[in-house]
Structures are given as structure tokens and as C-alpha cells.
Specification:
This protein is an alpha+beta fold. The chain folds into two domains: about 5-45; about 80-205, no CATH class. It has helices at about 5-40, 50-100, 125-130, 200-205, and strands spanning about 135, 140-150, 160-170, 180-185, 190. It has a five-stranded antiparallel beta sheet with strand order 1-2-3-4-5. A hairpin with a 2-residue loop joins strand 1 (about 135) and strand 2 (about 140-150). The longest helix has about 50 residues, at about 50-100. It starts with a helix and ends in a 5-residue tail after the last helix.
């Protein structure tokens, strides 16, 4: 038989190890909790500084891209205005040759939807140009008779004119276009950097031409 003291010592030793093990477990808990907090941190989203940086980058990109887009759109509007004015001038000459009624006095005379073409609705240009408000691609279009009416008109036709003046003016100067355009009887396209409308054929012909 073992002495009671030794048995008591053995009994005292085992509880001692249990307390040590318990202390080590407690010491490990903070590290485990910190590790868990570290893993959970990405789920908390972006910080305010990170969001501000993203917004600043977006604003910088927009400041570079938007002016370029506006310039491209403006240049496209101006190119479209020149093409449409050429179409109107060509249609005015075609009207004069076809109907022997001089030049048309307005856009509806060379417009119309058909089915048949007449001297009062010749269907020579797109309906979007010959119908009020006569606007397309950021420009306002107009066609007026010039130099008075012809002396003889075919029956049923509104008397035409000896000359004509076609104009294209930006709806908003500097935004939809930087140039206004005009064309008269010779069919030459002229431009005005001020963006104003040419009031007469003489004023138009004095402007620089394309």
C-alpha cells in the first residue's frame, strides 16, 4: 500500500495540470478572436476614404471624356448641316429644271410625302427637313425665295423665284454648332463663325466658302 501522503500528492498534481491547461486555453482565446475578427473585416465594406478616392477618379475621367464627347457631337452636327444644305441646294436647282417655275420659295415646296410629286410638293428632300419646325441634328434650316418672283408660272403652281437662299443655323451656338451655313443660287456653301443667319444672298456670298 502506498502512503496516504503520496496518494494525496498524486491527487493534488492532477487538478494542478487541469488548472494549467485551462489557463493555456484562456491565453489562446484572444488570438483566436483576433484572427476571427481579421477574417470578418472584408465584409464590413469600403471605408469613407476609399469611397472618396473612387469618386475622385470617376470625376477626373468624366472631366476628360465629356468635353471630347461634346466636341465630337458638335463636329458631327456641323458635318450633317453641310450635307443637308447641299441636299437643299441641289433640290432647289432640280425643282427649277423640272417645273420651269424658278426656284422654290420654301422647304415644303420641295418636300412632301407623295405618292406623286407636284410643283407645290416636289418630294425632293427628306420629310424631316420639309416639315416644321425644320430642325435636324442641332440645326435650324430655312429656304426663302430671292430676287422676286418669276414672270411666268405653270398653271396651278405657286410662283417661284429668280433666286433662293438656304440657311442652316445652330439651335444653340457653341453647344449644337459653332458655325452657321448658307447657300444661294450658285450653289456654293458659305460659313459664318459668328453663328448668325445670313439675311440675304448678298450677305451669304460675302462670307467665306467651304
Amino acid at each position: 500500500m502506498q502512503p496516504e501522503g503520496r496518494r494525496g500528492g498524486s491527487q493534488n498534481f492532477l487538478p494542478g495540470r487541469s488548472e494549467t491547461d485551462s489557463g493555456e486555453a484562456k491565453a489562446m482565446r484572444p488570438a483566436t478572436q483576433k484572427h476571427g475578427e481579421h477574417l470578418a473585416r472584408p465584409n464590413r465594406g469600403f471605408s469613407l476614404i476609399e469611397l472618396l478616392i473612387v469618386v475622385a477618379i470617376i470625376l477626373i475621367i468624366a472631366a476628360i471624356a465629356i468635353p471630347n464627347m461634346l466636341r465630337s457631337r458638335l463636329a458631327a452636327n456641323q458635318a450633317s448641316a453641310v450635307a443637308n444644305l447641299r441636299t437643299i441646294s441641289t433640290a432647289a436647282v432640280s425643282y427649277w429644271v423640272t417645273y420651269g417655275n424658278g426656284y422654290p420659295g420654301d422647304l415644303p415646296t420641295i418636300g412632301g410625302v407623295g405618292p406623286g410629286a407636284t410643283c407645290n410638293a416636289a418630294v425632293l428632300i427628306d420629310n424631316s427637313l420639309s416639315t416644321a419646325p425644320y430642325q435636324k441634328s442641332g440645326y435650324q434650316y430655312a429656304l426663302t425665295g430671292d430676287q422676286g418672283n418669276v414672270s411666268v408660272s405653270p398653271p396651278g403652281c405657286t410662283p417661284g423665284f429668280v433666286g433662293y437662299l438656304a440657311t442652316a443655323v445652330p439651335l444653340t451656338f457653341g453647344t449644337t454648332g459653332n458655325l452657321s451655313y448658307c447657300s444661294s443660287e450658285p450653289g456654293i456653301i458659305h460659313y459664318d463663325p459668328s453663328g448668325t443667319v445670313a439675311g440675304t444672298s448678298a450677305i451669304c456670298n460675302a462670307l467665306p466658302n467651304l
